Amino acid sequence: MILFKPCICFCALAMTIFACKQNKPKPLSNDISKTIVTVAGKKNSVINNPRKKYGEATVGDPCVKCLLTVIQDSKSYKENTNGVSPQNINYTINWVKASAPALTPDTSNKTNGIRVDVKKDEDGEDARLCTYIYNNTSGTMYLLNSQNKYQHEVSSITPAILKKIRHNCYWGVASE
User: Fold this and answer.
1) Closest listed residue to residue 74, CA positions, set 135, 131, 13
2) pLDDT tens for residues 62-96?
3) Domain boundaries, the chain
4) What values do phi and psi take at 14, rounded to 5?
5) Helix then strand then coil, % of the chain, to nearest 5
């Protein structure tokens, strides 16, 4: 009986160690901030939270896919990306404070919006084509001008689409 207890403890310890040492999937890229997201059958290159101000709290895949779908269907996106090959378009997505007139990526922990920069890859350099802000407080999506000021509300977005964005990006909080 005395030998039985150490044997059981040893077996339990061995099972715990082997259970925790599972093979982890290897990343496809060494650049953990850049991901490929497929929206409507097209691959989109997304740089997610490049400044890493929030540790691991990046924008989730359902939110990224929802935002890109909505943005790519808008009239302003089609006008700003006219003549640009889809392979040369990159997106940078970051949490921001959407109430300030100049909307830059935020350094505090309080955010109420998501900024999507649509960029054109020109010889390794990103040139900004247009920028969108989703303001969760007001439940609206805006197009920004070159001075980072609200240009106008994106007109093609219905209340149902805004509810879908809120649900996908804010995990259903206050969206029902």
Assistant:
1) 131
2) 888 888 888 888 888 888 888 888 888 888 888 77
3) 32-169
4) -65, -40
5) 30, 30, 40
